[in-house]
Structures are given as structure tokens and as C-alpha cells.
Amino acid sequence: MVDDKRVKTVMNIIDKMLHDTSKPWTNFFGRMETRTGVPRLKVLIGLLLTTSVILFIFEDTAMVLSNAIGLIYPAQATFSLVFSPPRWKSYASAAAAAEAKNKKFTYWLIFSALLIVEQVCGFVLFLFPWYIPFRTVFLMWCSAPIRNNGAGYIFKNVIYKNLESTQRKPFVNSSGDKNLMQNRHPNGPPCRPPQRSPQSPHSTSMRSALRK
Hints:
Layout: H1 4-18, H2 26-36, H3 40-56, H4 59-83, H5 93-125, H6 131-143, H7 150-167, H8 201-211
Helix pairs in contact: 3-4, 4-5, 4-6, 5-6, 5-7, 6-7
């Protein structure tokens, strides 16, 4: 049996999140509540039930709905970065904006890669009965308006690590010298400047004679 107190606690937490003015979904649920007279929590439950029915039953419409979920909100959030960069409580505005841009950059890479994979081997993926619902949940997790969403996780654990290992590779010049630039990473030791060969006394005397 499910504890009624726990259910009520979860429902209260969700209801508070729907009324949080700092979240991007507040205006949408506020307008829906004003027009229909239905509380926000019931509007959310109705949307989830309708989306689940379409994704699990109507196969022809499910792919269109899945792509719409993965496109509309992320596109709106990407455009909003230009006008109002997010600010986390424990982060400076510049760091928060850079973090948000990295997430959006990662999300669009994921979305594009998913479409390419489906074009190549979609006939295999669509054999799984619940592929489209899982696909939709994955895109929602990657684009969720939270700090540790899927795009942030993939950027931190996949993209950033690969880029960091690439930037830390030693630079080899034409002569095969690996010590010329030990580390090109910005946090690494500084590169050694090229050393000039010492000038001989003969060349110095020739230059002084030409100047005269």
C-alpha cells in the first residue's frame, strides 16, 4: 500500500514548483489555470496522461509529438539566453551564462546525433515497442530546466573530458621535438618561448660597420 502522507508530500512539492516564479513553466501553467479554472497540479496531470496515451498508443502521431517536445522548449530556452542569461545563487552571472550555453550546445548536438542515428538505423530502433516514450523522456531529461540535467551530465563526463585530453596532448614540431610546447591546456604550465641563437662578435662588428 502507498502511504497517503508521502503522496500528499510529493503532491505539495510539485504544486510549489508549479507556483515558483523563477521557473520557466510558471507563466504557462498560470495562463492555463486562469483560462480553465483548473488547478495547476491537475493541469499537469492531464498533460502527462494525454502525452502518455499519444506516445504509447498512437504511433503515427507519437514521433511528431516527441520531436515537438524535444524542439519547442529547448529552442525557446536557447533564444532566451541572448536576452536574459540565467544566474545561479552560488555562481557569478558570467559563469552561469557560460554553463547554460554549454548545456544548450550539448543538447543540440545530442538532438542532431539522435536524428542522424534514426535516419541510418531507425528500422531497428522502432522495433522496440517503447522506444518513442523512452526517447521522449531522454530528451526531456537532457533539456530539463535544472542545473544537473542530461545535457550538463553529458558535457561534463563526455565532451569536456575528451576535449581536455585532446588539449593536453604534447605538440610535436617538424623536427620531432616534443618539449617545445609541453602543454597547450590553459591550466597547464606556460609554453617555453623560442630561444634565439647567440650572436657572434663577427656579426656584431659587421652590423656596426654597415651603420657607419
